[in-house]
Amino acid sequence: MGVTKASVISWIKALRDGSFETLSVKPGRGRKSLLSPSQQEEIRKWLESDPQLTIESIQQKISKTMQVKLGRSTVHRLIKKMRFSYITPRPEHHKKNQGDEVEFKKKSIKPSK
């Protein structure tokens, strides 16, 4: 069943002493962050000063300045935790003619309010 003898013995003792609630999984401490709060604050300052930073550029900056290697998803979670959003612009077609767009906007009729 994939359970050790020690686990079964501890479950029996817990049931003798208490009730079924003692067998429930209790919250753990979770995983420790690789960055200290001061380092996270420094990253927040980077994002506030330059909101155009990409995940890759933040990843490289963290690696160079803090000597900590973080993955893309970890950096993305950090950005979300700091209440920033990662928004990328839609790509533009390489054959797009900027003059056509300006001309279209001039000729389009503005809706009346």
In a few lines, what is going on in this structure?
With 113 residues, the protein is mainly α.
Could you characterize the architecture of this molecule?
The chain has 113 residues and is an all-alpha fold. The chain has helices at residues 5-17, 37-49, 55-66, 72-81, 98-107. It starts with a helix and ends in a 6-residue tail after the last helix.
Structural descriptors:
113 residues; mainly alpha; elongated
Write the layout of secondary structure elements.
Blueprint: H1 5-17, H2 37-49, H3 55-66, H4 72-81, H5 98-107
The counted number of beta strands is: 0
Q: Cα distance, first to last residue?
A: 71 Å
Helix content: 40-55%
The mean pLDDT is 86
Structural class: mainly alpha
Number of DSSP helices? 5
Order of helices and strands: HHHHH
Task: Summarize the biggest pleated sheet.
Answer: none
Weakly predicted, low-confidence segments: none
What is the C-alpha radius of gyration, as a whole number of Å? 27 Å
Overall shape: it is elongated
- Strand content is under 5%
